[in-house]
Amino acid sequence: MQISTLLSYAGGFKDAVEEIKQLESAGLDMVWVPEAYSFDAPSAMGYLAANTERVIIASGILPIYSRTPTLLAMTAAGIDYLSDGRCMLGLGASGPQVIEGFHGVPYEAPVGKMKEIVEICRMVWRRDRVQHMGKHFQIPLPQDRGTGLGKPLKIINHPVREDIPIAIASLGPTSVETTAEIADAWLPAFYTAEAASAVWGEALTTGASKRDPKRAPLDIFAGGSVAIGEGLEDLRDLSRPGAALYIGGMGARSKNFYNDIFSKSGYAKEAKIIQDLYLSGEKKAAEEAIPAEYLANSSLIGPESFVKERIHALEESGVTSLNVNLMGQETAERVTQLEKLRNLVDSM
Description:
- This protein is of the alpha/beta class.
- The protein has one domain (2-223, 302-347): TIM Barrel (Alpha-Beta Barrel), CATH 3.20.20.30.
- Helices cover 46% and strands 14% of the residues.
- It has 13 helices and 12 strands.
- It has helices at 13-25, 41-51, 69-82, 96-101, 110-125, 173-182, 196-209, 240-249, 257-279, 283-288, 292-297, 304-317, 331-347, and strands at 2-6, 30-33, 56-59, 62-63, 87-92, 132-133, 138-139, 166-169, 185-186, 219-228, 300-302, 321-326.
- The N and C termini lie close together (10 Å).
């Protein structure tokens, strides 16, 4: 079972990469590089490629609206070359607030565009001449658009791999179904083993039934915060502010994907309360309204026996790779937690 983590560079990107180097030595398999509306992810991924030797470097995630499909493919091919074949292209739709508010692009047809983008990326990596006449993307542009001078081209360089893995961060039924059909990996949010089947089971099954049998099974990444040891249960409460932000305040009241998932996970009443409190400015109360049961089920915090049970539950629900947040105030503490988790996973 692979172990991945999200790169956090709140304290400085170069220091964060130094930590990843230590985590790599301690057994980390993969690092997700976020973008949101911060510095761009590909610059950071290139820097990681030059400073690491083994970890897979994944964008976590690049929004599909901010770049052309061919640029996404070129970027992944470039990072794959710099890292000697260690790139994963993580894609997602992001949300209307970021896409329309920061990028100034309409948030339209996320599932349809995702399908076409994946098809075009794989065409570029195979070094096919890019010819795609889809509903959302036409490459080259038709003669009646632009100058009419566009012609089919193929990427100049020879990519290290003609099939770079693609991960999709998706939440809704239609987008998860598409992920199960076309992606190599799935990066869900608010995943708990107990609710996974009820929330996503049908979508995953339907998508898998349409999957190309030549592709390997979908790699599913989930896990939670990690702190292995006796008497650490209070550390679960550190997740309350972030959970309240997403459940209560990420998006508009009428369109909050995270609130929907939390509601479908068996917390419909709590989801509404948390959103009402958060949007009315009562953030602390919103944090306190998050059920302790959810905090336990969505974490790997507690004695070794508890963490072992949670990993087993995740595996039983379909999770194939762990995506974790390592707890600790200093790098040394987080490295120690990874070593504990690595040893535990390898012993199972």
